[in-house]
Design brief:
Distance between the termini: 42 Å
Structural class: alpha/beta
Oligomer: single chain
Shape: globular
Number of strands: 8
Strand content: 5-15%
């Protein structure tokens, strides 16, 4: 197996730095009460507590309200195409396995336009962290229904409710044999910090579903409603290695909603570790890039 560490925790010199290291001069412009404020704060705090400096992480963003975070904090950041953040993040991670890569996406982009990429991210077990900003609608385009919008909820593009079935997201996720599944609530910053830290250090693909308040367009799963319904599985002694139990409590949201690290299996090799061509390599692919003379090849084409 190659000797490249799959996650970097940053330099020891950064350990004493404050969150101001991630401060940016751009003003946040989410709606008042948006859950993105909490997620924005938690991801910065998690990176600082892991001693990862802004120069030591890649933050990838999809299209959506969450994507406005891409220029609201420091670090290497990439704002990609709608529904395509996961292949972008996976490619960057495979090119430079030492660099922690964190991808952000909304429920619309991830379970509609990009659901195919989500499937293969689980299947491939890419060594990246994916944070789902789940507010059950397309907030950036003024409240259209997404694949995760609840039944019977009037939305701007479907005033009579959606005619399609709502995707049972956690049932879907667990059917893909994940190695890490967590769920948080945008109003609980300390818990999100711990979830993000555990996810970033996970060996393979870490899926983190954040139930996010959207005060402008989501009138059914409000901040107050979520506060009343979420509970922390760690407080009830949940064993995150128990796949069957994790799936049960993740899917059952009839009376209350489980949050925390629901499932983790760190014993399964990730995509990079399975690549036969990388066995025994002590360099990263990005270090092996070199100039190649293709003039001879081009003559065959023209």
């Amino acid at each position: 197996m190659n000797s490249i560490p799959l996650h970097s925790t940053g330099s020891s010199e950064f350990s004493g730095e404050a969150m101001k290291s991630y401060s940016c001069g751009n003003t946040c412009n989410w709606c008042d009460g948006c859950g993105d404020y909490g997620i924005w704060t938690a991801i910065k705090r998690a990176l600082v507590e892991l001693s990862i400096p802004p120069s030591g992480v890649l933050l990838c963003y999809d299209i959506g309200c969450h994507g406005n975070m891409s220029d609201k904090l420091m670090g290497y950041r990439f704002h990609g195409l709608h529904g395509r953040v996961l292949p972008l993040a996976a490619g960057a991670k495979l090119a430079n396995p030492v660099l922690p890569v964190i991808a952000h996406g909304g429920d619309g982009a991830s379970f509609s336009e990009g659901v195919n990429h989500l499937v293969h991210a689980f299947r491939s077990n890419y060594p990246i962290t994916f944070i789902l900003h789940n507010n059950a609608n397309y907030g950036l385009t003024t409240g259209q229904a997404s694949s995760l919008t609840w039944q019977g909820q009037p939305m701007n593009s479907s005033p009579n409710g959606i005619p399609e079935n709502t995707i049972r997201s956690m049932d879907f996720v667990f059917s893909l044999e994940p190695t890490f599944v967590a769920r948080g609530f945008s109003g609980n910053i300390p818990q999100m910090v711990q979830i993000f830290k555990t996810a970033i250090q996970h060996r393979g693909f870490a899926f983190v579903d954040i139930l996010q308040a959207c005060p402008t367009y989501n009138k059914f799963a409000t901040h107050e409603w979520l506060m009343r319904h979420v509970y922390d599985v760690a407080a009830e002694g949940h064993d995150p290695s128990d796949f069957a139990k994790a799936r049960q409590i993740a899917v059952d949201t009839s009376e209350r909603i489980s949050t925390g690290v629901l499932y983790q299996d760190a014993g399964i090799p990730n995509f990079y570790e399975r690549l036969a061509a990388r066995q025994g390599k002590t360099t990263a692919p990005v270090e092996e890039v070199e100039k190649i003379d293709v003039s001879g090849f081009m003559k065959e084409l023209v």
